Amino acid sequence: MTQWKSKYIGSTEEIVSRLNPSSNLNGISSNQTLALNKAEGNSLSLSEQNVMAKETEVLTSWMNADVNRSDNSLISTRLQAKGSTVKGFDCDAPKVLVVDDHAAGRMTAVALLAMEGYEVIEADNGYTAIELVTQKQPDLILLDVMMPGIDGFQVCQLLKQDEHTRLIPVIFITALNDKRSRIQGIEVGGDDFLSKPFDRLELAARVKSLVRQKRLNEDLDHAEKVLFSIAKAIESRDPNTGNHCERLITLGEAFAEFLNLSRNQIRDLVWGGYLHDIGKVGIPDAVLLKCGKLTPEEWNIMKKHVLIGEKICQPLRSMRGVIPIIRHHHERWDGSGYPDGLKQDEIPYLAQVFQMIDIYDALTSERPYKRAFTKEEALSVMAQETAKGWRNPKLMLKFTEFIFSSKQ
């Protein structure tokens, strides 16, 4: 291969760091971080006297329940004991969908859950259950296994494959105690099992625990979506970068598979593609959007984006594997990088991997101040920086092999 020398004076850090300009977005600044509200619940305690009192209450409510039946006799019943609230939850009572083709089985579960303060919805077959999940968005589903038409396993599998319903916990209620049925339930995504006849205290405890976990998962899911939205907003501020994040994700997944990284490492690398520069939301426009060369003072401000990004993502436990990428993707092999001046294997491995794809994409993409380099030219620049001591030599060899062996 003919060796090509770049005429660009400077480093790839300057190219990479000045991607994705952004303005401060609606009050989000460097000292503001996202946090999750953690749900706390009280332990379940039911005395015999309380149970008796609640049974009387729920039976009275049962007599006045609002039952809506369609022409084809499919059941959609809503029941909640008057004045009841679930301990450990706010005034918005959790909704539980009970699915059983036997009315007696449904009534038992409905009565017990209504006593605990849940809003209960009923369905007598799998098809109705799927419709009600879409309409009502329950917090939990008690699902019988043996039903005509579509059985409980099939219902659960369909719900867990849907992005909008996958977080809803499913408890299988069945008379089946054999190991094979339980394994099948786990394989389709079931969260727990209760055998008929079930114990009322066990039912209440398991439902409460799974509903709490579901709400925590929803909070986490919402927080992650907020972060990704901010990251996309940052990228959209600069039309010159094109789909930089999308390209990083595609290239990162391919390189990760080439390196035989684990599933979790691939996920962290993909999320790093979206979130690595999220800290630029806290960099002033005068610095971030400046067309000319940055002064030393401005460059010090620009370098703070990795610390700001780390603070934004730190409250989320799911970001633990991504934070090292955000903080350390500008470190150098010889310790001359930022923010911590880490050397060689002190630099987290995923941050090293991400550096390769981030720099390569910056070099091979057109910018107002540079043309798009060919893959040979980009690899030559990266090889020169590796010779200076900036990159991991072994990883650079693997990346070069990957580029020439793929269609990238």
From TrEMBL:
Keywords: Phosphoprotein. Pfam families: HD_5 (PF13487), Response_reg (PF00072). The keyword Transport does not apply. The modification 4-aspartylphosphate is found at D144. Residues 95-211 form the Response regulatory domain. Residues 219-408 form the HD-GYP domain. This is Two-component system response regulator. It comes from Plectonema radiosum NIES-515.
